[in-house]
Amino acid sequence: MADRDTDVQAADIEDDGSYQGPGSKKLDQLSRQGSLSVFRDIDMEDLVKDAQEQQLLSEPKYTSNNLDVPVVIVTSEISPWSKSGGLALVTASLALELAGRGHRTMAVSPMYDNFANCSYLSSKTIWLFGWEHEVKYFHMWQPLEVEGTKGVDYIFVDHPCYHRPGGLYYNAQEGVEYADNLFRFALFTLAALEAPCCCAPGGAAYGEKVMFIANDWQSALLPVYLTHRMRPMHRFHQSRCIFIVHNFGYQGIYPCNKLVPNPEGTLPIIIKNVDIDDFGLNDTGAYEHMIYQYPPWERSYHGDDGNVWNLTKGAVMTCDRLLTVSEGYAEEMKTSEGGFRLDELVKQKEFFLSGILNGIDVVTWNPRTDPYLAMQYDFDSMPAGKAACKRQLQEKVGLHVDDNKVLVSFVGRLTTQKGVDIILEATEWMMEDTGNNVTGNIQVLMMGNGDEIYVQGMQDMSRRYPGRFVGISFDPAVEHVMYAGSDFLLMPSRYEPCGLPQMCAQRYGTIPIVTLCGGLKDSVVVEPPEESTGFGILPLEFGKFKEVVYRACDTYFHYPDIFEAMQSRGFVTDFSWCVRIDQYEKNIDWTLNDPPYVR
Asked: 586 with 594: CB under 8 angstroms?
């Protein structure tokens, strides 16, 4: 156990910028959530060895029948190079885990910046929207062991349209999506389709028998192009495509009257109707698969015919198998509330639909070895460790240092989807002392970035309740301390495809309070009480939220044995990727054994 006075803390060390990219699997796994500066004075070999010895990993129980088929993961973001949310973490883990199982594995993503330690591999000219565009491919090889043949080929697609001073998908300062996103990700998808043949990492191309795994709307055109462009050209006949939905609320919807870039590829200045020919899919059935028409009552202006391109609709209609990130969310996608207008199409594809709960990186998220913590702890030392980390968290964020308060935290995007409005609305009630020995003894930490109305709301509450309520921007170092030092984690999401914070929290002995939806109900046990690891809110309404938060905090203050039992059950739950990859391997085998979904 690390001594509290000598343990390295991330907040005390400045990143000097010398890190230029992952040099090994160990380094990458430990760095996915933030700065690497915290690890510079630590014996990496001992740290990782201890983490691997302690983590609760089950052995693989399924062996693929198609280990000889390479896997090509296509994603608009992948950690640690690009990240706006959980998509980057999940695709990074999938690449590493499938490579570890023995697949030759390529991960393809846009080159948003001049990523260090990448080498130029090849170029390709791609026709799109009426003219030709040259994309360049850069490569980085990441071995899984110091000496070994298993690893991941990271391929980064470079084109001027990906280099933007703002975020990956939109200008954060203006709060609007880039006008040429339809072009940017259509080009990326076509480049990714060509990568297995025109890139030869290590001197050998992947070829035209591969398992494509496309992720979310940004790469949703991949199964469309595979179905309607590649196979008619007698290419990729033996390849298949799995499409993973990480959030069905974002479908890549663009009006047919859309900005497209000029021939020089600089600014999107030409306005024209984007026709199916512009995608290079004329004389195919792609139009019917991609087009969606809003009903009259949802059209926004006089003369609006309601016709839009829906990229995710195209993927659902053409992919060979449809996956999502939890069993609960797979069921919700078939409902009018969770299907976002595509529920009937999902139900038609139910036989080819599966939900696989995401895992977390149990090396990075491990209180036994986490170098961000004032005191590392295991199962036996959890009470002392969490008490030390609670004081550390209170000091770090500006809460009153008080062991007798219950500390409730939130981390995530500041949006209505995450229930941030309900938390802020209930803050006054949590702060008010009404003599019940619960409310008035609650401290609240909220951490995240997002909608300005909620940023202002956090700031207002911080001024109104100094030392009792703190709202801060997302900080990866504080996130580790938050999981260790909090008593409860709030996730009152209106919908949640999977969610990762509730898994990380349980791994640190922090009890989640969640809406019983999507992946939250799949990863937090609320019934029966003797098996519970958290508290569930259903339905999500203000009164029910207060009722469940009160019950949780009352358990903390007045029923410590029940509280500690819930902590312990969550602490020993296995959230590793191993069992999840078994399910992915099964779906890969089923998909490769079947003929193409659209023939």
From this structure: no
Q: Is 598 helix (H, G, I), strand (E, B) or coil?
A: coil
What's the pLDDT band for 174 if we cut at 50, 70, 90?
Answer: confident
Q: Is residue 146 part of a domain?
A: yes
Same domain, 404 and 488: yes
Site of tokens 């309070």:
513
CA-CA distances (angstroms) from residue 484 to 73, 394, 534? Answer: 33, 12, 16
Q: Do 588 and 443 share a domain, yes or no?
A: no
Picking from 216, 227, 239, the residue whose alpha carbon sits closest to that of residue 289 is 227
Identify the CA nearest to 257 among candidates 281, 245, 273: 273
- Digit-coded pLDDT (tens) for 431-471: 999 889 999 999 999 999 999 999 999 999 999 999 999 99
- Cα 246 to Cα 249: distance, rounded to the nearest angstrom: 9
pTM listed for this prediction: 0.87
467 Rama sector, left if φ>0, alpha if ψ -120 to 50, beta otherwise: left
User: 3-state SS string over 440-495?
Assistant: CCEEEEEECCECHHHHHHHHHHHHHCCCCEEEECCCHHHHHHHHHHCCEEEECCCC
**Phi, psi of 365, rounded to the nearest 5 degrees:** -95, 80
Regarding whether 111 and 78 lie in a shared domain, the answer is yes
The residue that leads in pLDDT, 232 or 261, is 232
CA-based torsion, 53, 54, 60, 66: positive or negative:
negative
CB 449 within 8 A of CB 568: no
- Per-residue model confidence as pLDDT tens digits over 503-530: 999 999 999 999 999 999 999 999 999 9
What three-state secondary structure class fits 359?
coil
Q: How many CB atoms lie within 10 A of CB 500?
A: 22
Q: Which helix (H) or strand (E) holds 194?
A: helix 181-198
> Is it the case that residue 76 has pLDDT exceeding 90?
yes
Where in the sequence is the domain holding 450, given as residue range(s)? Answer: 382-574
pLDDT of residue 47: 35
- The answer as to whether 299 is a domain residue is no
> Is 136 within the bounds of a domain?
yes
Orientation angle between helical segments 476-485 and 382-397, nearest 10 degrees: 130
> What three-state secondary structure class fits 131?
strand
Q: Taking a C-beta distance cutoff of 8 angstroms, is the pair 71, 103 a contact?
A: yes
Instruction: Give the pair of three-digit tokens for residue 194.
Output: 């060509």
488-491, strands of its sheet edge to edge: 469-472, 442-447, 406-411, 488-491, 511-515, 535-537
**Which DSSP string do the residues of 283-339 spell out, in sequence order?**
TSTHHHHHEEE--GGG--STT---EEEEHHHHHHHH-SEEEES-HHHHHHTTSTTTS
Whether residues 570 and 583 fall in one domain: no
Q: How many residues does the chain have?
A: 599
- CATH of residue 182: 3.40.50.2000
